[in-house]
Structures are given as C-alpha cells and as structure tokens.
Amino acid sequence: MTERQHYYVESFDTISLAPYRISRSPFAHRYTTAETVHAVYCNRLYPMKASRDENPIPSYWKLRRGVLLYDVPERPLAIEGREAAGLLERVLVCKVSDLGVGRCRYGLACNHDGSILMDGVLMRLADDRFWYVTANGEFLSWLGAHAIDFDVEVFDPHSRVLQIQGPKSLDVADAAIGGGLPADFRYFRAGFFEVCGQTLWVSRTGWTGEAGIEIYCNSGPEPTDHDALWDGLFACGEPLGMEFSTGASMGIRRIEAGILDNGSDIEPDLTPYGAGLGQFVRLDKDDFVGKSALEQADRSQLLLGLVCPTAMPEPGMGVSCEDRLVGHVTIGTWSPTLDTGVGYVRFDQPPPGDGWLGTTVQLHDRDGTPHTATVDTLPFVDKEKRLPRSAWNGAGAGSG
To answer: Could you say which of 2.40.30.110, 3.40.50.300, 1.20.1560.10, 1.10.10.10 is the CATH number of the domain covering 300-383?
Structure first.
C-alpha cells in the first residue's frame, strides 16, 4: 500500500477488551459486526473502522458532498443550578455570563500553571442549565471539586451524541423535526426540537469542518428511545442519501479542517497560546483558574500545520530545520481534496524571529528519509471556515 492510500494513521491491531469501565453505545447494535474496529475515547467505545481494511475515501467524499451520520463518543457534562454560570466562569477561560440561551461557545479549562486541561463546547440550555461537551480526559471530578462553594449540581447526564454532517445535513435535520428548522439556525446555535417524535437538544456544531448538527440523547424531559431515534433519522435521511459512517472518514476531514484533539494534538504542557488558541482566552474577566499564569505566559504559537507533497505526516515523525530537530508530528493524513500530505507539527522551542509560519522544514519519515515540508496555518481546507457556517435557507438548500 502506498503512502497516499493510508490517508489516516492509526494502529488497528486486534485487542480484546473487557467492558469494565468502558461504556458501549446504545446504538452499537445497529452497526457493529465481527469486523468492526473500535477505539476508546472518554471511556466510551466508538466505531473507528468498519473493518481493518476499510477504505474511508468513499465515505470521505460522501461527507464532503452529501451527508453522513456518526455515533461519536464525546461526553456532555451537566452543570445546573443558581450559580452554574459562576462555577463555569471560575473554571473556563472564556466568558460565560453573556452566553445566551440556545447559544454555544468553545471553551478551554486550564490548570493553575496555564496549561490546557480540557477543551469542549459550552451550551446554555436554560438560564440555570449548561452542558459542557468534553473531549477525551477526566473533567467531572475537576468540576465537582471546584463546585463545593457554589449552589450548583454537576453530573453526567449519560447522553450519547449523534452527529449528522455534510452539505445535506440541515435538510435531514429539517425533515427530522417535521419541516420546522428555523432560518436563523446558524453555526453554534442550539435548541430543543421534536426530533422524530422526541424532545431533544440539537446544536449546529460538529467535528468535520462541514455543515452539520449534533443530537443529544437524554437531554429532554424523558429518557431517549434510542432505537426509535435511529430509525426515525434514517427514515428522514435515506431519501437524501444519508449513510452511517465510522470515524475513519471523520478523522481525515477533521485534520483538513484544523480541529485539534485534546491530549494528543493539544499536549498536556501546552498553554492556549502555544496551541494557537489564545483568541479564546478572556483575561479581561474576573479571576479564573490559570489566569495569573496566562497573564505572564509566552505568547509563541508552538502547534501549527505542516504540508508535505511527497510524504504523509504520521504521529511521532521528527521535524527538523537547518539540520536541527525542532519538533514532531502529532497527527497526519493524506488530503484527498488537496492531494498532499497534511498534519500538525508541535515545535519544542520558540520560533525564530519571524515565527514558524511559512518556514521550510524537513519531515523525517519512518525510515529517516527527509521530505521537504512547509509550516502552514490551520485549517488546510476552507481557510475562511465558511463551510460549517453555511446559511440555512430552507429545505433543499444543502443539496447543491
């Protein structure tokens, strides 16, 4: 198999796992076979590949041109009560009190030394009700520890999340709620809708860089009937060509879209500035965990994009400049859209005078062979990030 055929780098050796402390999706029986390759994220199993030899490229193009449904492992946490906003102001670096009901906001939580502990999407379901959708890693206990002095309840609502992604995703959503998707349902908006007969929270978000929605189970007044939801969504989506996909196609697209994964791309010692996320830090708000350290932190960006026409970046590959090792790759893929290798490079030292951006470096493949590469901005595809913000103008708007 050539480098260009690998596309997304993971290790898929077969390992048998006992289910102890690992949550299985309530949708798993709808797609799991003896060939399904699972991964673990947020202590949840999710389908990474349909089989060891799955070719993700047909699904990738389906995502880019049509619509796919994903069963994803992200973990929402509920923060509810009179002082819910106050607790979140304390533990997140973003502003919380001005977040309106039905709005979402990207939010980072930092350690006291300013390094990133968690990233996720904060959503306001009501004045005193928030959900924080976390990435991989433990955060519930951190929230609980800081909640001691607040009139608030922090808990796991046991919500499994379905993502419907692609240019036709809003058409599927409109059909699933009976033709009532609001015209102003813009990017990072959310609300309660009757989805295939069940009241559920739906957000205009995703992990693909395409237009998309996420549906949150167990968010309404009644426990979710997962089978009824699955059947209802496919009844609405199949006329539009919607299919189920594993995470392999999403993995390619999220790298092209410059979406970072906490704990792997965002390594534990990175501050928001080092990760290129400094714009999400609000130093003008009242004290929060890590504020004093961030006020004094170096502003150098150490995580950037890498473009290599002759090789595909893979995790752990070294990156050198002027015969000196200066960093390593955290993740990479071959971009079908750009027909070139792309990935993220973590530099282990401050940049030269003009910064790392635009610098020509050497990517060293598994055999040690150097390949000329260029440091680039993220994302690689759709530089202006217009696709996830595509306007919703009514049924059929996403079918073109």
So the answer is: 2.40.30.110
